[in-house]
Amino acid sequence: MKHFSRILMGLLYIAAGINHFRNPGFYLQIMPHRLPWHEALVQASGVCEIICGLLVLYSRTARVGGWLTILLLIAVFPANIQMAIDWVHTGHTHAWVAIARLPLQLLLIWWAYGACVRDDKK
Known about the structure:
The chain has five helices and no strands. With 122 residues, the protein is mainly alpha-helical.
């Protein structure tokens, strides 16, 4: 089951990373306003998601991929907060999605830890 979980996770992160290049406008909108170089950061986060996805696919690199995924999820959390703030303030019809996405980050961190980092042999 852990193997299947890693494969699913890897494919999802690869797809999400590719989406940064296919649909950069969405990610540009949610960038925290105080950060510079929005386009470069969107591209860099897309590359990082693809790398994390590839790393978690393979047993030999899953542990480092899991830790990098956790770090990535922490790093992009401010963008999720910015999206929630902006969508609530503008009355966006899907503001609830942005708010629900915040605790989802914790679940994604838990998933990466459980599927890739935690050693079940202890």
